[in-house]
Specification:
By secondary structure, the protein is of the alpha/beta class. The protein contains 10 helices and 9 strands. Helix 5 packs across helix 10. Helices cover 36% and strands 15% of the residues. Strand 5, helix 7 and strand 6 form a beta-alpha-beta unit. The strands form 2 sheets. Strands 7-6-5-8-9 form a 5-stranded parallel sheet, with helices on one face. A 4-stranded parallel sheet has the order 2-1-3-4, sandwiched between helices. The structure holds N-carbamoyl-L-aspartate.
Length: 302
């Protein structure tokens, strides 16, 4: 459809060029989105969250509040989605009631392509099954850009290691695409049973011995709700071999985690006060990055 050719979406990291990624993250830090009063005449943002969420949902809400957009939050519980209404029908009705863009989290991997093809307005992926979570990878990148004081050379030179349940992690898959786009070296570490097909694009190891070589170590949640028998069976061995405590990282190394954290599983519960942890910084950056992203898909400037 001709009209759709000019609509920007954020369904995958593939929707961005390298320079768009850097411009978005840089401007989130250097030119933070302006606070604007709500304009009730503007189309609202429909936030459709069909899986549990704290950080992602709240930071999109805070992003809307910051840049003066009304929002409506639709959860699966208590709505007609429980009665079997399709996401597509929900979106058509939200559009009819004055929503102009859609932030969607779904349990269906790849499930946002259909939403995008409806042509109702920009679609932003807030996590699709074990597919992608592009805004999480982008806010992580913003956090790292802040860490290296906006120096793109230093950013690209960072050695980043991701360990944990890679197979079920949409965050990790978006990171894989982002790292390839920017030429950042990623090292992946997990038990064999949790190795995803896309790991072939990076260094992968079934031990965590490479952790000491990384500048930044990203822990992932063990996603028990997505695991079948063989994958679940290695959890205990994973905890024994990979669980990371404060003593395991050197002074110059940094820790990240997209949240929610299983304390005592992927991380020992002693990280909360550690200055090497960027975990709350990630949550803080999420609001800025998502506000910029909404402006980008809506093509409004602050
Ligand atoms: C992640 C998600 O939902 O994909 N969390 C998040 O959005 N910050 C990771 C997870 O669920 O473990």
């Amino acid at each position: 459809v001709l009209e759709n050719r000019f609509v920007r979406h954020c369904v995958s990291i593939d929707d961005f060029t390298e320079s768009e990624v850097l411009e978005l993250c840089r401007s989130a830090l250097k030119k933070p989105p302006a606070f604007r009063p709500i304009d009730p005449a503007k189309p609202a943002v429909g936030l459709v969250f069909l899986e549990p969420s704290t950080r992602t949902a709240v930071s999109f809400i805070r992003a809307c509040q910051r840049i003066g957009l009304n929002h409506v939050l639709v959860l699966s519980k208590g709505t007609s989605i429980e009665k079997g209404e399709t996401v597509e029908d929900t979106l058509r009705n939200l559009k009819a009631m004055g929503m102009g863009s859609f932030v969607i989290r779904t349990q269906v991997t790849g499930g946002l392509q259909g939403c995008r093809d409806l042509g109702l307005g920009p679609v932003v992926n807030a996590g699709d099954g074990v597919g992608e979570h592009p805004t999480q990878a982008l806010l992580d990148l913003t956090t790292l850009l802040d860490l290296v004081h906006w120096d793109e050379g230093r950013l690209r030179a960072l050695k980043i290691g991701i360990y944990g349940d890679l197979r079920h992690s949409r965050v990790a898959q978006s990171w894989s695409k982002l790292a390839r786009k920017l030429g950042i070296r990623l090292t992946l570490m997990s038990p064999e049973e949790w190795r995803p097909a896309w790991a072939v694009d990076h260094d992968w190891s079934d031990s965590r011995s490479a952790i000491k070589d990384q500048d930044v170590v990203m822990a992932l949640r063990v996603q028990r709700e997505r695991m079948d028998g063989p994958a679940a069976a290695v959890t205990e061995a994973f905890v024994n071999n990979f669980r990371l405590g404060r003593r395991d990282l050197a002074e110059h190394q940094r820790l990240m985690h997209p949240g929610p954290i299983n304390w005592g599983v992927e991380l020992e519960p002693d990280w909360l006060e550690d200055p090497r942890s960027l975990i709350l910084k990630q949550a803080e950056m999420g609001v800025l990055l998502r506000a910029k992203l909404l402006e980008w898909v809506l093509e409004t400037k602050s």
